[in-house]
Write a structure and sequence with these properties.
The protein is α/β, with parallel strands linked by helices and about 350 residues long. The chain folds into two domains: about 1-30, no CATH class; about 35-340, no CATH class. About 40% of the residues lie in helices and about 10% in strands. The protein has twelve helices and nine strands.
C-alpha cells in the first residue's frame, strides 16, 4: 500500500471518528452524572437547584475521601435512602462531644454495600467508634451492583474497574431515551420528562457536604402544610390496613456471611453500634428465623426493632412516601434507644 493510500485511510478514519470524538468530549466536559471529576461539594446547598439522578454510592465514597483528613470521621450512619432522615446533628446529642459523624449511605443499599463501605473505612486505617446501621427487609436482598444509579464505585467494588464504571455511565449518556429528556433540559433548564424513564429526582434535596447528608425540608414543609396534596404528588399508595405479619426468611448463607464479617469489623474497631429496623407501612415483621441468626451474630441488646408500632405504621403523616419515614420519627427512635424511654411519638421497641 502506497503512502498516499495510507494517508487517505487515516484521513477517512479520523473523519468517521469525529462524531464519536465529539460525543465523548461532550460527555467528559459536561459530566452530567458527576462521575468523571471529583466535586466538593457535589451539589450546592441551594433550595431550588435541579439535580440529575445521582449515584449516592459514588457521592458518599468520594465525599468521604475528600473530607476524611479534615474532619477525622469516626461515627457512621449506614443504610439505604431510608436512613437519610436520621440526622447527624440529632445523633450527636447521644455521642461524645468530640465525635465526628458521617452519613455513609448508598442508593438502594443492600447488606453487601454496607459491608463494602465498612471494609473500605477499615482499609484506610480509619476508625469506626460509633455506628448506626439502618435496616429494612430489602437490605437482605442481593441487589444488582451495576444498576445505573447504584453501580458500585471501583474504590470499594472489588471486581468493578474504573473502565467498567465509566463505560456504564457513558452508555447511559448516549441512550436515546435519556437524551429525549436531557437535551431539552440542557436547552431550557426545565427538568421535564420526555422519555419513558424519568431521569430527574422527584424531590429537590438540601445537601451538606461535611456530613454527606440530604435534607428533605421542602417535603417536610409540604406535608405540614397540606398532607393530602403532598402525598398525592409523591405517589403515596393507599395500603389497606395490614395485620402484623412476618416476612419470609431473608437471611441466606451469603447474607449470613456478610453479617458475620460486619460483626467482626465492629468488634475489631470496638464499635459502639446499634442495628435498627424502622417502621414500614406494610407492617412487616422480621421473621423469627432471621431474628435468631442476628442475635447469634450480634449482641442482642444492640438490635432494635420498631416495625410493629401501630402509631407509626397506620398513620401516613409519619412517612414521606411509601417507604421513607420522617425525621421526627427517627429522632424519637434515637431517643428510645439511647435514653431507653418512650418519646412524644409513642415509640417503643418491639
Amino acid at each position: 500500500m502506497s503512502n498516499k493510500s495510507i494517508n487517505k485511510f487515516i484521513i477517512r478514519t479520523i473523519i468517521a471518528a469525529i462524531p464519536l470524538i465529539i460525543i465523548v468530549a461532550t460527555y467528559l466536559i459536561i459530566d452530567p452524572f458527576k462521575v468523571v471529576r471529583y466535586y466538593y461539594p457535589y451539589f450546592e446547598p441551594r433550595t431550588w437547584e435541579t439535580w440529575l439522578g445521582w449515584n449516592k454510592n459514588w457521592v458518599s465514597v468520594t465525599t468521604y475521601e475528600q473530607g476524611r483528613e479534615t474532619y477525622k470521621y469516626d461515627s457512621f450512619i449506614f443504610g439505604s435512602s431510608i436512613s437519610i432522615a436520621y440526622k447527624t446533628d440529632e445523633w450527636k446529642k447521644y455521642l461524645p462531644s468530640n465525635a465526628s459523624p458521617f452519613h455513609f449511605d448508598g442508593t438502594e443499599e443492600d447488606l453487601k454495600g454496607i459491608l463494602d463501605k465498612m471494609q473500605y473505612i477499615d482499609k484506610l486505617n480509619d476508625t469506626i467508634k460509633h455506628a448506626l446501621i439502618i435496616i429494612e427487609p430489602k437490605t437482605f436482598t442481593n441487589r444488582p451492583t451495576k444498576k445505573f444509579l447504584r453501580y458500585t464505585p471501583p474504590q470499594i467494588g472489588g471486581c468493578n474497574t474504573y473502565l467498567d464504571f465509566h463505560y456504564t455511565y457513558f452508555r447511559q449518556f448516549i441512550n436515546s431515551d435519556f437524551l429525549k429528556s436531557y437535551i431539552p433540559f440542557m436547552i431550557t433548564g426545565e427538568p421535564i420528562k420526555y422519555g419513558i424513564n424519568d431521569i430527574f429526582p422527584r424531590q429537590q434535596l438540601l445537601y451538606n457536604k461535611i456530613t454527606n447528608e440530604e435534607g428533605l425540608e421542602l417535603m417536610e414543609g409540604a406535608i405540614d402544610k397540606n398532607p393530602d396534596s403532598a402525598y398525592l404528588e409523591n405517589g403515596m399508595a393507599k395500603f389497606p390496613i395490614h395485620k402484623l405479619h412476618y416476612c419470609q426468611p431473608l437471611i441466606s448463607d451469603t447474607i449470613q456471611s456478610h453479617l458475620t464479617k460486619i460483626s467482626k469489623l465492629l468488634k475489631k474497631h470496638n464499635s459502639d453500634y446499634y442495628i435498627v429496623f424502622g417502621p414500614n407501612r406494610k407492617r412487616e415483621l422480621i421473621h423469627p428465623y432471621d431474628q435468631k441468626i442476628l442475635s447469634e451474630i450480634f449482641i442482642p441488646e444492640r438490635i432494635y426493632r420498631y416495625t410493629a408500632i401501630d402509631t407509626i405504621t397506620d398513620d401516613k403523616p409519619y412517612f414521606y412516601d411509601n417507604n421513607h419515614y420522617r425525621t421526627f420519627v427517627c429522632s424519637a427512635i434515637l431517643d428510645s434507644i439511647y435514653n431507653n424511654q418512650s418519646s412524644k411519638a409513642a415509640i417503643a421497641a418491639e
